[in-house]
Structures
1.
Amino acid sequence: MLRTLEPELMLAPDQAQAYAEADFSETDDRFVQRFGQLFGRDFVGEIVDLGCGPGNIALRMARAFPDCSVTGVEGSAAMLDLARKRLAAMPETAFRMRFVEATLPTAVLPMHSADAVVSNSLLHHLHDPSVLWLTLRQVAVRRAPVLVVDLRRPETETRARQLVDACAANEPEVLRRDFYNSLLAAFEVDEVEKQLERAGLYGLQVQAVGDRHLEVFGRMPG
Ligand SMILES: C[S@@+](CC[C@H](N)C(=O)[O-])C[C@H]1O[C@@H](n2cnc3c(N)ncnc32)[C@H](O)[C@@H]1O
């Protein structure tokens, strides 16, 4: 099945709200655990979360890595509004976090300022995926840890519908529609391998995870 693009930014307030209310805790917790497993549970530094949405991963990273500061970067004002409301309810963590409104590619982010870069479920939104890999080159310091997790495109539309029914049976229609469109917009493992090769990111590897995800992990070039 060929890739079908979906809109990059999740701009609609009802869309952002449905996303924020959905329970992604299993995959979100796994993301944070995976970062600790790969790069150490005592990681220290500035972590940048690209396409942070309502802050699911950014807020978890800040809690799990208490000696880190976390910057979430997001192009949708509706998503950022939700992220900032959540942050306001976490005063013990708020001083180590900030959310920046920026649509990638952007010149707003300072060069080589991130000690680690993470991103969850952004890649499939990007019409030109090289934007993510070039942004990593822009913001990350040398040898910075990277963890990118995303959906993996199924082989057929029928399989995509089965995944929506299996994983989001009782979710609102707006979320089910977004999930289906996201599966069709996602990449296959070998496509991401080619993207990394073109970007010269030889320290990063990609692998399939479970029935619908892929992960890219490793370190930026030295
Ligand atoms: C599926 S959500 C994932 C949100 C978050 N990372 C999480 O794991 O919950 C994808 C997010 O990426 C944002 N996004 C898409 N394209 C973007 C771009 N070019 N620049 C910045 N944000 C973008 C969307 O607005 C949306 O909030």
2.
Amino acid sequence: MADTPAVTANGYCTNTAPVPGSVRSTNTSSLGSKFARLNNRPYADCPCGRTAIGVTERGNLQRHKPPRE
Ligand SMILES: [Zn+2]
């Protein structure tokens, strides 16, 4: 399926809608110290393939770049 969101000229994904069901809260000792600073912030996955993106209070994904080279 060609469901990959568009990317801006500077490489950021234009999608802000999380993959349904992917939103979860950080409770994250299990994710390692790398994510400790995101404590208590929800995060979600994007259809572009990027995972663990922070989610705003409005439920939108924070600006991110898709995992492509
Ligand atoms: Zn994305």
